[in-house]
Amino acid sequence: MFDAATAPLVQVDGLKMYFPIYSGILRRHTGNVKAVDGVSFDIQAGETLGLVGESGCGKSTVGRALLRLYEPTAGAVVIEGEDIAKLTPEALRRKRPTMQMVFQDPQASLNPRMTLADIISEPLIEHTNWNADRRLERVYELMDAVGLNRRFANRFPHEFSGGQRQRIGIARALALNPKFIVCDEPIAALDVSIQAQVVNLLEDLQEKLGLTYLFISHDLSMVRHIADRVAVMYLGRIAELSPRDALFAKPLHPYAEALLSAVNEPDPSLARRPRIILKGDVPSPARPPKGCNFSTRCPKAFARCHEEKPELQEVEPGRHVACFLYASQTGSTGTLEAKEHIQQGEYK
Amino acid sequence: MPDRAAPVLDVKGLKTVFRTRGGEIHAVNDVSFHLERGELLGVVGESGSGKSVTMMSLIGLLPSPPAEIRSGSVMLGDLDLLKITPEQLRNVRGDKVGFIFQDPMTSLNPVFNIGFQIAEPLRRHMGMNKAQAKARAVELLELVGIPDAAKRLGDYPHQFSGGMRQRVMIAIALACDPDVLIADEPTTALDVTIQAQILELVKELRVKLGMAIIWITHDLGVIAAIADRVMVMYGGQIVEQAPVKDLFANPQHPYTRALLKTIPSLTGVREKRLQVIEGQPPIMTTAPSACAFRARCTHAFDRCEVENPKRHGIDRLPLGQGHDVACHWVAAPVSAETAHV
Ligand SMILES: Nc1ncnc2c1ncn2[C@@H]1O[C@H](COP(=O)(O)OP(=O)(O)OP(=O)(O)O)[C@@H](O)[C@H]1O
Ligand SMILES: Nc1ncnc2c1ncn2[C@@H]1O[C@H](COP(=O)(O)OP(=O)(O)OP(=O)(O)O)[C@@H](O)[C@H]1O
Ligand code: SF4
Ligand SMILES: [Mg+2]
Ligand SMILES: [Mg+2]
Questions:
Q1: Residue B80 · residue B101 · CB < 8 Å
Q2: Rounded Cα distance, A310 and A306, in Å
Q3: Does the distance separating the beta carbons of B265 and A264 come in below 8 Å?
């Protein structure tokens, strides 16, 4: 499906995105929402990386920071060899066509006063000097590609169903032949019966055009269907990053394990199995716990988890986990160093 | 366990129509079902299929106009909820029937603290005094797993997380020990790990309090996990009804069959391509005179165009007791074993 030997299309290293909190009458800067707090991963050309995790864990923020719709607080986002985070506005404008986004709510992301043809040709007007005929030709081509009838070109968004509106959003994202598309919950707003249509379309387009996807979703069974590898996020950090089959067969991180166990299979005999029920609520990203971000709810937490933050480490070939349960498997030095850290901490 | 003898709730021939400027919308078309004591009835169906409107019709929560209940009876014990006065209905809602809405933020009142919102129905319907109501409110919040319940009575809805607000809603719905709890997509907005907490709680409460529950959701996984019996709605009608195991093992209606196939599995074989249901849900501008699913149905034939299929049992049990389906293509009991495998 993708060639692991070549350099990844997308390389994210130590990405942080903090949102400042201002409070009091003087609107003083009193803290930060650490929406994304040190996230690193690669995506190979032609690959689909799934990004899952609970609401508010920072998935959308990662997607937006990757395309520099936000100015990241720290870290590098290298797409095709260029660090997006450092590009000048003009260089960024030239880079834009290669990276696009499909949004969760097709209704809200489409201008209700523009026709379908206007919406799809908007990026063409901005980034090409094509004349109207050439643009319309491309609009028709894109409508064919996403399965929208050409006769609909002059209709307005409200005249379409949810699934059709999502197709419009996808057509617009494809207009400039992007290589990389961030799909942020592209099916969450759609009825179950329509979701499969959109997912099949995304897969067909990937095959035809060699697209690379970051597929953000909270629907784990859909992620299992579409993704090659999956990153599980919790409170601004990646808990586990593993190949799809390995993750679903045996999640390593305790959060990934709880998450998968909580999913209800549409099958009464499977859905009634015992599951891991977590206690407590997700902490606020403005006040993450001192130790591991999952330590307040983790059924397996031990003393060290409440003191230090585990880093994402490769614990099996291709499988990356941020959890001290796996620290011993990474070689003795890692554990020793960690021990020293704890001791230094105690003496301070 | 369900008690065949006396249903707590018995709905017959319910029809609800909206009169809008663009004409009529026939949202609920001749819906009949019953609910047994201690039973959990799951309701599934496409967006717009009439799940919420059906349940809101039962307990007089639809604004009229535009809503108009054209016919039917809703028996709660020997009270017909469609015939009683608004005052009586209000009492039924606080006392006998609890309701959890689709969106907890819009149904909790942002200007009152949580303690007040739980205690108020207790004082009104159960005649408790202030101290009693407060003690019971703490008990209820603890029951739904809100830590430090006594300290949180004075907090306002925005001070709780989404999952906690949902649990507060459940606490309010449970306040007066209702016979029937109607939960409309109560966990849709929640994360799966929080959802699992709530489902566990509901199962527990059902055993403890013996409540009958109607649970609306589009998530077939949730239905598989908690329902005893399932109703599938399409175009404002019940198109299939069965005990949960039969529905998943042996779905009959083409819509149910297709729906079950569109969902990728978490553990089974990974399918290369997802099955889809082509086309759009119908807009019901008139009472149905043909099968509402015909335009999207792969099995439709001429009869489906001219006659709205009636529900018929596939197992010789009375309607509502066994497995029934409204489809011309699905044969009647005689040949049920051999038909369409
Ligand atoms: N512009 C912003 N200003 C301040 N805080 C923000 C902003 N955008 C996001 N946040 C916060 O950052 C955190 C992560 O938000 P994000 O939208 O990335 O979550 P998510 O994982 O996409 O959640 P969901 O599944 O609900 O879409 C949340 O706590 C959110 O409240
Ligand atoms: N106030 C209203 N005025 C006019 N039509 C309405 C009104 N409320 C609901 N409807 C229509 O009634 C039909 C049934 O709606 P209902 O809300 O019961 O669907 P649902 O099955 O609960 O869907 P969902 O899964 O999206 O909640 C829909 O066609 C809807 O558009
Ligand atoms: S590091 Fe500790 S607290 Fe964090 S997930 Fe692993 S075991 Fe749990
Ligand atoms: Mg998001
Ligand atoms: Mg509804």
A1: no
A2: 10
A3: no
Taking only the tens place, the pLDDT of each residue in A124-133 is 999 999 999 9
Give the residue whose CA is nearest to atom 28 of ligand 2.
B48
User: Which residues, 6 or more positions from A302, have their beta carbon under 8 angstroms from its beta carbon?
Assistant: A324
* Chain B residues within 8 A of A279 when measuring between CB atoms: 197
Mutation for B interface: A52, A59, A192, most B CBs within 10 A: A192
pLDDT at A109 over 90: no
Q: Tally Cβ neighbours within 10 Å of residue B262.
A: 19
Q: How many CA atoms lie within 13 A of A191 on its CB side?
A: 20
Q: Which residue of A has its CA nearest to B160?
A: A281
Pairing between strand B324-325 and A237-243?
unpaired
**Under 8 Å between Cβ of A88 and A20:** no
> Could you report the per-residue pLDDT of A94-104, keeping only the tens digit for each?
999 999 999 87
**Environment class of residue B64 by beta-carbon count within 10 Å: exposed (0-12), middle (13-18) or buried (19+)?**
exposed
**Whether A85 contacts A72, CB under 8 Å:** yes
Nearest to B86 by CA among B110, B114, B64: B64
- Residue B164, pLDDT score: 78
Find, among A127, A130, A45, A41, the residue nearest to A92 by Cα: A127
* Residue A135 contacts residue A122 (beta carbons within 8 Å): no
CB B277 within 8 A of CB B295: no
Query: How far does CA A261 lie from the centroid of its chain?
Result: 21
Distance A51 CA to ligand 5 centre (A): 28
Nearest to A224 among B191, B266, B277 (CB): B266
pLDDT score of A221 more than 80? yes
Determine whether the shortest distance from the Cβ of A19 to ligand 1 is under 6 A: yes
Q: Where are the domains of chain B?
A: 103-177
* CA–CA dist B187, A60 (Å, integer): 21
**Structural Rg of chain A based on CA atoms:** 22
3-state helix, strand, coil in chain A (%, to 5): 40, 20, 40
Q: Which ligand is nearest to the CA of A315?
A: 3
> Residue B74 Cα, ligand 4 centroid: separation in angstroms?
41
d(CA A248, CA A256): 9
Q: Hey, what amino acid is at B62? A: L
Strands A237-243, A229-234: pairing is: antiparallel
User: What pLDDT score does B105 carry?
Assistant: 56
Distance B258 CA to ligand 2 centre (A): 22
Predicted ipTM of the assembly: 0.76
What pLDDT shows up at residue A247? 96
Distance CA A214, CA A32 (A): 26
